[in-house]
Amino acid sequence: MRHTHAIVRPPPPTFADGLSSAAAGTPDLARAIVQHRVYCEALTACGLRLTALPVDPAYPDSCFVEDPAIVTATGAMVTRPGAPSRAGEADSIASALRSWYRDPVRMTPPGTLDGGDVCQADGHFLVGLSGRTNEEGARQLAAFLETLGYRSSIVDIRGTEGLLHLKSGMSYLGDGRIVVVPELSRLEALRPYELIVVPDKERYAANCLAVNGRVLIAAGHPDLAGTLSGLGYDTLPVDLSEFRKMDGSLTCLSLRA
Ligand code: CIR
User: Fold this and answer.
1) What is the pTM of this model?
2) Given the DSSP bridges, would you call strands 177-180 and 194-197 parallel, antiparallel or unpaired?
3) CA 244 / ligand 1 centre spacing (Å)
4) Is it the case that residue 99 has pLDDT exceeding 90?
5) Ligand 1 site residues, Cβ closer than 6 angstroms
6) C-alpha span between 159 and 133 (Å, rounded)
7) Active site members
8) Taking 90 as the threshold, does the pLDDT of residue 164 lie above it?
9) Which protein residue's CA is at the shortest distance from atom 12 of ligand 1?
10) CA of 100 to the centre of ligand 1 (A)
11) Is the pLDDT assigned to residue 191 strictly greater than 90?
12) Which sequence spans correspond to the domains of the chain?
């Protein structure tokens, strides 16, 4: 599937006040801004046209634009992010999406869902139940996706320690292949796919981003980079150290369609 554009939003001055379970120290804002710029350049190098939303200091986590919306080639849903401090991000993403989609659908209470829990594998969506995404949110998304002709299945990761979102532990590469952390590799929903299991010490790199024939991968993960190169993928390492301190990774920094 060819991507043509992406929405991004740079980290705000309040970035360090965002949610984090990483216990990896305070992020350096200046460094985060540079890393975000390099990330944007990598997306541009993959052929995407970028729309950069204005910095939003009211929401420290607002650079993680993947969470308040789900976008596809033919429609978009504005979600209800599962963390109370992020709920207000939905309104600003909704207005940004109106320049792409005639009528973005809004999720309604009591559903909650973070886009980080949604993994699109061509015409099929894997939707994770997590601390952020509840059954009602997953149900509303599945019903919406069905109207667009997509199928979905639910994957429950609530018992899996250390994974904020489904995509913290897996990514779809295309060609029926999924990169996955060891503890998710036995999931029934993944049986139709060829799995590339990331060594535990490189688990952060399970969140990688396949765009238009290239694969962005978190810098500093030579085993996975070597495996992917061996399979013929053109990998593009991106340093995300400051976003990792805030539980962020590659996919969460953009909305791609
Ligand atoms: C949060 O806890 O919501 C942010 N600090 C990190 C969100 C990362 N989002 C993602 O992986 N989709």
Assistant:
1) 0.97
2) parallel
3) 9
4) no
5) 18-20, 61, 64, 66-67, 83, 86, 115-116, 165, 168, 246-249, 252
6) 13
7) 165, 252
8) yes
9) 116
10) 24
11) yes
12) 5-256
Across residues 141-163, what is the average pLDDT? 96
* Token representation of residue 157: 């990761």
Architecture category of domain 5-256 in CATH: 5-stranded Propeller (3.75)
C-alpha 61 to ligand 1 mean position (Å): 7
Burial of 54 (0-12, 13-18, 19+ CB in 10 A): exposed
